[in-house]
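Work Package 3 (structural annotation) set out to generate three-dimensional models for the target panel prioritized at the project kickoff. During this period the team completed the workflow that converts sequence records into discrete structure tokens, so that structures can be stored uniformly alongside our sequence database. As a representative example, we reproduce one entry of 87 residues exactly as it appears in the project archive.
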Amino acid sequence: MKNEIYKYLYHELADYEKDGVSLSMEGDPASPMQIVEAHMMREDISYMRDYVLDEEGDIKEVCFHHVGLQKETAAVDTPQNNKKMSK
């Protein structure tokens, strides 16, 4: 199942690249394969897409930014677990 998702992602990004759309990951230029490999190796992190449009409203760039939180940070920063916030 996951292999099919990665294949779909690769083909989608390759089509963007073929159409002249720039691809980047964390601010650096990236190929479709680099982006797919990052998704495969870092399954504990989610990536958010940022679509940059040109003046006509066409996609000119797709940027990927990781948005995953570490479990320790997420648990500590919740209002339920922060005693200072409850006082």
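The longest helix spans residues 2-18.
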